[in-house]
Amino acid sequence: MRELKQIEFYCKKCRKSMKMAYLLTGSDDAPVLPGMIIRCHTNRCTRVMVLKKYTEGMLIAQADNDGKVYI
Predict the structure, then answer these.
(1) pTM for the full model?
(2) Which residues contact 55 (CB under 8 A, 6 or more apart)?
(3) 25-57 as b/e: b if 16+ CB within 10 A
(4) For labelling alongside 47, which of 16, 20, 65, 70 has CA 20 to 30 A away?
């Protein structure tokens, strides 16, 4: 497995990019975008998410080999 430098967010419902990425700091316990509202930008999908208790370790565990996380 290659070393991930950033993680990109994708919508779990419509599988499209949210045009948002997170640069990894190296600390697995660091909170990730607390209180940020993320909205899917496609015309048909209306999902809105808030990352409340996500940490870098959780994102790395959910990421695939390309650094994509479907939330």
Answers:
(1) 0.83
(2) 28, 29, 30, 31, 32
(3) eeeeeeebeeeeebebeeeebeeebebeebbbe
(4) 65
